[in-house]
From TrEMBL:
PROSITE patterns: RIESKE. Residues 12-122 form the Rieske domain. This is Rieske (2Fe-2S) protein. It comes from Saccharopolyspora rosea. The lineage of its organism: Bacteria, Bacillati, Actinomycetota, Actinomycetes, Pseudonocardiales. It comes from the Bacteria.
Length: 128
């Protein structure tokens, strides 16, 4: 886990964009707060490392996909690499939105991410 510091406006440069390949993640801490930075489909997403279910290690769980809505007796798998399964009890969250797959009202906190001069910068104020 990388230990980083935020600037006075709450922004933290986590890594260079080319350091994180599609499907990879980087776990980091700022003070006592834990986060995960994910790259999926060429874009970056930052999630709070604390699971909204019971404060487990959300970002340390496996990245997977899920069964997609289909017609009866049809089973399609999709969103491969977009679904984060919490390391503690297995609740699944969409890394692009932070929302739980089974209960959209349950949501992991997400944070805006920008690439600036090749650096991936996370704003540690939660997305509204
Ligand atoms: S703490 Fe994450 S699913 Fe329970």
């Amino acid at each position: 886990m990388h230990v980083l510091e935020a600037d006075e406006s709450g922004r933290v440069a986590v890594c260079r964009a080319d350091e994180l390949a599609d499907g990879e993640r980087l776990l980091f801490r700022v003070g006592r707060r834990r986060f995960g930075l994910f790259r999926y489909d060429g874009r970056f997403f930052a999630l709070n490392g604390v699971c909204p279910h019971a404060a487990g290690a959300l970002c340390e769980g496996p990245l997977t996909g899920t069964a997609l809505p289909t017609d009866e007796f049809t089973y399609d798998y999709g969103k491969d690499g977009q679904v984060l399964r919490c390391a503690w009890h297995g609740f699944e969250f969409d890394i692009t939105t932070g929302r739980s797959l089974v209960d959209p009202k349950l949501r992991a906190r997400t944070f805006p991410v920008r690439v600036e001069d090749g650096a991936v910068v996370v704003e540690l104020r939660p997305r509204k």
